[in-house]
Automatic annotation (TrEMBL), chain A:
One of its GO terms (molecular function) is electron transfer activity. Keywords: Heme, Iron, Membrane, Metal-binding, Transmembrane, Transmembrane helix. Pathway: Carbohydrate metabolism; tricarboxylic acid cycle. The keyword Transmembrane helix applies. It is found in: Membrane. The chain crosses the membrane at residues 77-97, 109-130, 150-169. This is Succinate dehydrogenase cytochrome b560 subunit, mitochondrial-like. It comes from Sitophilus oryzae (Rice weevil). NCBIfam families: succ_dehyd_cytB. It is a multi-pass membrane protein. Its main location: membrane. The keyword Membrane applies. Coiled coil: none annotated.
Automatic annotation (TrEMBL), chain B:
It comes from Sitophilus oryzae. GO terms for cellular component: mitochondrial inner membrane. CDD domains: SQR_TypeC_CybS. InterPro entries: CybS, SQR/QFR_C/D. This is Succinate dehydrogenase [ubiquinone] cytochrome b small subunit. One of its GO terms (molecular function) is heme binding.
Length: 170, 172
């Protein structure tokens, strides 16, 4: 790579030696103390200039795209929470899980309550599952126009709600 | 977990090596551009192309925590794709192998997912340099113990798939 660059550089110098003469002018060089440039990150600069955080959440109208995006993250975090709690319970609780399932059954919570519990478990998983397909399709470069993003967004939402209701009532 | 550690640090090391090369190249190309004028469109565009490419790589390595996320990204997507099959299969078939696969793939997947959240929200510029490191360390502890707990459940009890199936039959 260095060799390549040097070769092109030499070529350039040779080509340009005539035109370079046009720019020749007297220059006085004066040594001065080296001042290192201020190292500032993107966030740092924005904070110093008082710029708002991007995206500017307080002035943006809530749009389907942004809402579905943050919901994917939220459901992912909720599911991770379920996994962590399940794992902790498996280690801490003394009886086998059949015992606790039996306890809940004997509590006779009523169909609405059981539907609610199942929905709380199923909805985040199904949302994350169906929307995950959308994410993976985007990652292959498909369905990326605004029109398609909205179309797949509404479709995903309908499929998620329908499948969550069916599975919770099962 | 060890796999993810190795991958992360692997890319980091390679990134550092690449960074030195890149800055060197940027300086070289910048020197050349000083000699350019309008008459030389061909070489101009060529050198510019090289220049922007090198600068992009150099900036990326400076901005990101791990310099080259490319390989890890592919692995993340492969795990997500695998989950697409593993998650329904685990609850449909109640198979011990699927139960363990579910535990492993889920924990790897949410570890990377939560890592992204930690990097996004617990930023050094807001909370100082120490807290992000503690948060990441804590995440490793959480992910490792969760994987341990899920595998323990699979091997001492009825398995994740069957457990949720039994719970779903609660109203019968
Ligand atoms: C059922 C199959 C699943 C699929 C297809 C899937 C797919 C995905 C994809 C593609 C992403 C990346 C989103 C992005 O590019 O920003 C993601 C993020 C995430 N997933 Fe999953 N996932 C699945 C199951 C799970 C499960 C079971 C959990 C938790 C136990 C989980 C937790 C997370 C978390 C925490 C994130 C990070 C969210 C973010 O960074 O915005 N996922 N998932």
């Amino acid at each position: 790579m260095a060799l390549l660059l040097r070769l092109t550089g030499n070529q350039l110098l040779r080509h340009q030696s005539k035109t370079l003469c046009k720019f020749v002018r007297p220059v006085t060089l004066k040594p001065s103390q080296y001042v290192p440039p201020v190292q500032m990150g993107h966030d740092e600069r924005n904070m110093k200039l008082g710029r708002p955080q991007s995206p500017h959440l307080t002035i943006y109208k809530p749009q389907l795209t942004a809402m579905l995006s943050i919901s994917h993250r939220a459901t992912g975090i909720v599911l991770a929470g379920y996994a962590v709690m399940f794992s902790l319970a498996a280690v801490w609780l003394e009886c086998p899980i059949e015992y606790y399932i039996e306890q809940i059954r004997c509590a006779e919570l009523g169909p609405a309550c059981i539907f609610g519990i199942k929905f709380t478990l199923a909805f985040p998983l199904l949302y994350h599952f169906w929307n995950g397909i959308r994410h993976l399709l985007w990652d292959t470069g498909r369905f990326l126009t605004i029109k398609e993003v909205y179309l797949t967004g509404w479709t995903m939402l309908a499929v998620t709600i329908a499948s969550a209701i069916v599975l919770s009532g099962y | 977990m060890a796999l993810s550690l190795m991958l992360r640090n692997g890319t980091k090391l390679r990134g550092i090596a690449g960074l030195q090369k890149c800055t060197f190249n940027v300086q070289k190309t910048q020197n050349f551009t000083q000699f350019l004028n309008q008459d030389n469109y061909k070489t101009l565009s060529l050198v510019n192309k090289c220049k922007t490419q090198f600068i992009n790589v150099a900036q990326q390595s400076k901005r990101n925590m791990s310099a080259d996320h490319g390989k890890l990204w592919t692995l993340e997507k492969i795990v997500s794709l695998a989950l697409l099959g593993i998650v329904p299969a685990t609850f449909l078939f109640c198979n011990p192998l699927l139960d363990d696969l579910f535990a492993l793939a889920t924990v790897i997947h949410f570890h990377w997912g939560l890592e992204a959240c930690v990097i996004d929200y617990i930023r050094p510029i807001i909370v100082g340099p120490v807290l992000p490191k503690i948060a990441l360390l804590l995440l490793y502890v959480i992910s490792a113990t969760t994987l341990g707990g899920l595998l323990y459940f699979n091997h001492t009890q009825i398995g994740i798939g069957r457990a949720f199936r039994q719970f779903w039959c609660i109203s019968e």
